[in-house]
Design a protein that fits this description.
The complex is a heterodimer of chains A (about 300) and B (about 325). With about 300 residues, chain A is an all-alpha fold. Helix content of chain A is about 75%, strand content about 5%. Chain A has one domain (about 15-295): ABC transporter involved in vitamin B12 uptake, BtuC, CATH 1.10.3470. Chain B has helices at about 5-25, 30-55, 60-80, 100-120, 125-145, 170-195, 195-205, 210-215, 220-245, 255-265, 275-290, 295-310, 315-320, and strands at about 85, 90-95, 155, 245. The chains are: A mainly alpha (about 300), B mainly alpha (about 325). The interface between A and B is large, with 44 and 43 residues.
Chain lengths: ~300, ~325
């Protein structure tokens, strides 16, 4: 196993991690501020991907497609929040889980009704396609590097937004004490809708960006939704920093586990057995990671509340 | 007779009457549908012990359902291929004998529920929901990437497993087995609700501190509830696999876990027969709407949304008013 392969895999892991972050940051904000478990966050990811595929097919512009993805997801998020989610803030977790599970069914089947069952394709824009040579002679797809850059800048922007701006301060205050900030004259309903729209737009962006390297299809949101939940549980619910570290941990564990676990087992057992056992274990690796973190720290790495 | 008892009686009369009618009218498909409803009900009753009584929102009960399914699949696979399950240090043969399969399904589910419970009950609230979901995904991805028993394609069993004295290939006889097991579990559930253990568990759900002050350990109560609940789901899984003569990783999928919760909420949380009503309604909808529209899950989603938002008591709540508990 060469060094180049290892670096490539680390880059893949980071790329996967930052895309997870785009999902997880929205989820963790929504949970932190509103105390809501939103299983339908994956549907917003799917909406973003379908909007991007639709707009890219008719306009040919990838940038326009990205903007459409964010707008469509944010809009779907606002509608979802105003019609359904708003009624769930005071309910218990069980009812939130169920209602948002129901939303997944409605969104998935609705999208299937509009776009059909076949996957759509979203092409990587011409300028960004093809590999680039990194220092050390490593060939790596330019688009994936752009994804890493976009993800990290969103993380930075979101961090600044939460810590420096007035709205950001209100969001943090809302996490700590929602009665108090309502008493101070902040329109809490509007703030909730805003946070939800922000989370939705990030999910839509992630959907469109990932849609260009995978296919755009019904149900694409659920696997990444579950991973995003793993991320926020590892990072500690409500913490943006936790979401970033959790995303990178999950991204790297998943990518590197798939490569190294089979190799590792080859030291102990026959190669074909090692391949089977190694890849079977690798597919479980992130869940094992999560279970370990929760057993060690039941509220995640950066979680405060029990 | 209270209205709830009347409704329970009506429900069971429906579950027994329709297949009997179908048997007389020679409509085996209807019997299969009813069997499906009964098996789902069995799994949901099992989950309800953890969820309704213990307040443990587990989004990972498909684990036990799947384990039951694979217990049946693996044992029957070795029996039909005449290969031993294990050759060393001692030989274990596969089997096509239902009671043994059930026993294995239940014991393995119980052990797994015990281990998962030990780990996951350290957390609570949202973290508990997520860690149970994660355990579910662990099993799901493991079965997908483990090629020995079919991997993603699953395992087909060609002949339904046998039960002494009965012909299980006859739909009505297999239905009778499943129904008898459902009745036994419902009886057990009603006993648990009234037992000292059930009362303590209910109290641990409501005010854990108070339970602790009288010297009971909420952790242990919840762990026992989770083990009983998982064991019943395992049994249901074995029956489900026998009904389809097929197991696949989808039995472990998180949608399966979600659907089990849906059965309970559709029927009515906090009622012994609620999961039965919910599972029956779901199978009915699946059949009726599935025939009319390809997008039947869309309507199920809408219905579920309406039930959660506006009628928290489910079917029982609509018909009887809100539950006391």
């Amino acid at each position: 196993m060469s060094l180049i392969l290892i670096i490539e895999q680390i880059l893949n892991g980071v790329q996967f991690g930052v895309m997870l972050f785009l999902m997880a940051s929205g989820l963790t904000l929504i949970f932190g501020v509103m105390g809501l478990i939103n299983l339908a966050h994956g549907s917003l990811y799917m909406v973003g991907a379908f909007a991007a595929a639709g707009v890219a097919a008719s306009s040919g512009s990838f940038l326009l497609a990205l903007m459409a993805a964010m707008a469509a997801a944010a809009m779907a998020g606002v509608i979802m929040e105003m019609i359904v989610i708003r009624r769930l803030y005071d309910r218990d977790h069980l009812e939130q889980v169920l209602a948002t599970f129901a939303l997944i069914l409605v969104f998935s089947e609705g999208t299937r009704f509009v776009f059909g069952s076949f996957p759509l394709f979203l092409d990587v824009p011409g300028v960004l396609s093809g590999p680039i040579t990194l220092p050390g002679g490593i060939q790596y797809p330019l688009y994936r590097l752009v994804l890493i850059a976009v993800g990290l800048s969103v993380a930075l922007g979101l961090g600044l937004f939460i810590s420096k701006t007035r709205v950001g301060i209100q969001i943090r205050a809302g996490e700590n004490d929602r009665e108090m900030i309502a008493a101070l004259g902040v329109d809490i309903a509007k703030l909730y809708t805003l946070v939800f729209a922000l989370g939705a737009a990030l999910a839509g962006l992630a959907g469109a960006l990932v849609g260009a390297i995978q296919s755009v299809q019904i149900g694409m949101g659920e696997p990444i939704l579950i991973l995003a939940f793993v991320v926020i549980v590892i990072g500690g619910i409500g913490s943006i920093r936790g979401a970033l570290i959790g995303s990178l941990l999950v991204g790297l564990t998943d990518t590197l586990g798939g490569i190294f676990l089979p190799e590792l087992f080859k030291f102990f057992v026959a190669p074909d057995v090692a391949q089977t056992v190694g890849s079977a274990l690798a597919s479980m690796a992130i869940y094992v990671l999560m279970a370990c973190v929760l057993i060690w720290r039941p509220t995640g790495l950066f979680g405060a509340r029990a | 007779m209270t209205r709830e008892t009347l409704l329970n009686t009506l429900l069971m009369a429906l579950l027994i009457g329709v297949p009997l009618w179908a048997w007389v009218a020679d409509e085996p498909f209807t019997i299969t549908l009813a069997t499906r409803a009964v098996i789902f009900a069995l799994a949901a009753v099992g989950l309800n012990i953890a969820l309704g009584l213990g307040g443990l929102v587990s989004l990972g009960h498909a684990v036990y359902f799947g384990i039951g399914g694979y217990a049946m699949g693996i044992l029957a696979y070795h029996a039909q291929t005449y290969t031993p399950l294990m050759a060393w240090p001692f030989v274990i043969e596969g089997t096509k004998f239902m009671p043994v399969i059930w026993l294995v399904a239940m014991v393995v589910s119980a052990v797994v529920a015990f281990v998962i419970g030990l780990l996951s009950l350290r957390t609570s609230g949202v973290y508990f929901i997520m860690i149970t979901l994660a355990f579910g995904q662990m099993f799901y991805f493991f079965t997908i990437s483990w090629p020995r028993y079919g991997g993603e394609d699953g395992l087909s069993i060609y002949v339904r497993n046998g039960f002494p004295g009965l012909n299980t290939l006859d739909p009505i006889q297999f239905f009778a087995i499943c129904l008898a097991l459902l009745c036994a579990v419902l009886w057990l559930n009603a006993r648990i609700v009234k037992s000292p253990f059930g009362l303590a568990l209910g109290a641990a759900r409501q005010v854990p501190q108070r339970v602790e002050t009288v010297g009971l350990d909420p952790f242990r109560l919840k762990l026992v509830a989770l083990v009983i609940s998982g064991t019943i789901c395992g049994l249901a899984g074995a029956l489900f696999a026998d009904l389809n003569r097929f197991v696949s990783p989808t039995m472990f999928s998180w949608q399966m876990s979600g659907e089990l919760i849906v059965f309970i909420i559709l029927g009515g949380l906090g009622r012994v027969f609620g999961p039965v009503a919910g599972a029956t309604l779901f199978v009915l909808l699946e059949h009726l709407l599935g025939g009319v529209s390809d997008y039947f899950l869309f309507y199920v989603g809408l219905l579920l949304l309406l039930v959660v938002l506006f009628t928290p008591g489910g079917i029982y709540g609509i018909l009887l008013g809100r539950s006391k508990s």
